[in-house]
Amino acid sequence: MSLKNLGNVTYYNLNNEINIPVDGQIPLNKDQEALAAFIKENVTPNTKQFSSLRERFDFLLDNNYIERPFVEKYDFSFVEKLYDYLKEQNFHFKSFMAAYKFYAQYALKTDDNDFYLENFIDRAALNALYFADGDEKLAMDLADEIIHQRYQPATPSFLNAGRKRRGELVSCFLIQTTDNMNTIGRTINSALQLSRIGGGVGISLSNLRGAGDPIKGIEGAASGVVPVMKLLEDSFSYSNQLGQRQGAGVAYLSVFHPDIIQFLAAKKENADEKIRLKTLSLAVTVPDKFYELTEDNDDMYLFSPYDVEREYGTPFSYVDITKEYDNMVANDNIKKTKINARELEDEISKLQQESGYPYVINIDTANRDNPIDGKIIMSNLCSEIMQVQTPSVVNNEQKYDKLGIDVSCNLGSTNIVNLMASPDFGHSVEAMVRALTFVTDNSNIDVVPSIQHGNHLAHSIGLGAMGLHSFFAKNHMDYGSPASVEFTGVYFMLLNYWTLKASNEIARERQTTFHNFDKSDYADGSYFDKYVKNDFGTQSEEVKQLFDGIFIPSTEDWAELKAAVQKDGLYHQNRMAVAPNGSISYINDTTSSLHPIINRIEERQEKKIGKIYYPAPYLSNDTMPYYKSAYDIDMRKVINIYAAAQEHVDQSLSLTLFMRSTIATGTYEWKNGRTDKMTTRDLNILRHYAYNKGIKSIYYIRTFTDDQDEIGANQCESCVI
């Protein structure tokens, strides 16, 4: 028997029986039966056996399955001690989907794919040993966090840790173009290289001159951004890891760029094939000025990036459009085009209804809240990474006259339900920060020097969270209720506090801070003022009980942390970001990210397998009333939850909005007396609401149509935790 010849198995049928009610009840026991059958029929007979742990490691090392250097940093007696501890924890998957996903996508297999070479304990052990880098105490701490599923490294880190033939530990990147052919060529090469190593790539095109701008004095010569987007899309399609996965990229453009209408039109279903973008994602950067113009129903001007750069001496992305708008309008040296702001806003909403795109980045909000010296100009493929960048200057030999700063994403996630049960919340977070620090310290993306340069200067990480709806349901809280919003704020305040503590401790140990720390709001102390002046701790009795036994920092504790950071600095330029979660949330037996569930029994179409059903975590008659579908929740409640978290997150959060084509009566008061169909007006109102709540980014708009289809339900496979 082998994985290629499983024979007659029962677990798929058992799992599918979950979808067949018995006496009006969901037969959740069928999921447990499917889990037991999967372990018995699939895992146990097809896992390669060894007589001892030593024999197993020798086999893996001698046959080039795992790297030797990190193992040899430990005495093997410690490795045995670590395994003894992990086995004592009696880990078991709680659902069929969790076990299936782990063994299908994460477990190391023999080269012929006939047998499994590891279980969850083995993967946890290799992650702990690898990220601890020879530190026995940290290895034990990380093993404790991972086996209890309080911490989940991002998919590329969790999957590749310790493997000899592995991909990169990071997998999401941000790069930018400047307005010349050399940089465009370098950008296309970077897209090819990053897609080859497994990356989802965000690319800012806002600096490129618009269609019709002059080239070497010839008016009308420039082709604009859309042809460059086509080149990038073809690059991602070509560089697809030997056909194993589709390359993934997103193009960013300012709403004040003169090509914005063509940019949006290229994604429409009826677009001409010469310009239509089938796989490249779209995102727009939106300054405050756009919201002001749409609220006042004013016309707006689109500005030539070529002229703006000549007038201001800096690329278009780095000009504060809100601040300079009136000056740019009055400047006759800047070519401009007038359109109606609300008409553009409607075009954005129409495309979101049709495709889920574009993502929306509230760029002034991001920069207003940015404690780092420099300017944020874009985000990543999943809209949660926001870090400062600087442009590069590339010469005719495709070499750098000036090496700028670009970004790689280094992510991990807390499991909210399990971290709330940690014996020491702060110690858990410190272990996670140290694991993420290993990844950033050992990431070396030399094929794109600007990304390598940015990572070496910033040491940035992104710790986030998953399982918020699980926590609410388990604790009988309605998603979006005042108590749930309060809980979210306190939880992320704690993550902020403890990641700052850990980063400060690492800076003190290494006597090193991130580049330009002395120019940051951390160094002058202003970042901490709101925490020193205001109590962000628990307020209601309900939330106080949830945090019973967990240390909540007082204003005095924040004042002490402020002094410590001003004295010794921070190692990490950025510390927190909340990404979307893919299959890894199933392995954690929790709901993904911070958003509500879609269905109490989720139906997933698995390649070559068919449908698999996944009951929401902790689903029972007791918790069922608290598992309301995202499509049936007022999206302002979701925005309020994300805003409570955003208050304490230095980067951003992947916020998806869920809409029905036909909206239930009473959901939104502005629908009263109007059509019950979703309109562009609904999306416009919600975007303005999110903007006014301090939301930095909106990821997909997912629409559940009247014919039971989903629009905008694409999964970001590159940046998922």
Core attributes:
Anaerobic Ribonucleotide-triphosphate Reductase Large Chain; globular; 11% strand; 721 residues; 3-stranded mixed beta sheet; 7-stranded mixed beta sheet; disordered C terminus; alpha/beta
Blueprint of the fold:
Blueprint: H1 11-16, H2 29-43, H3 53-62, H4 76-88, H5 96-106, H6 120-132, H7 136-147, E1 151-153, H8 155-160, E2 172-176, H9 181-196, E3 200-204, H10 225-238, E4 248-254, H11 260-265, E5 281-286, H12 288-295, E6 299-303, H13 305-312, H14 321-330, E7 336-340, H15 341-355, E8 359-362, H16 363-368, E9 393-394, E10 400-402, E11 407-409, E12 411-415, H17 416-419, H18 425-442, H19 449-458, E13 462-466, H20 468-474, H21 482-510, H22 529-533, H23 541-546, H24 555-568, H25 583-587, E14 601-606, E15 610-615, H26 635-646, E16 657-660, H27 680-692, E17 697-698, E18 701-704, E19 710-711
Parallel strand pairs: 2-3, 3-4, 4-5, 5-8, 12-13, 16-18
Antiparallel strand pairs: 1-12, 2-11, 6-7, 8-17, 9-10, 14-15, 18-19
Helix pairs in contact: 2-5, 4-6, 4-7, 6-7, 7-18, 9-10, 15-27, 18-21, 21-24, 21-26
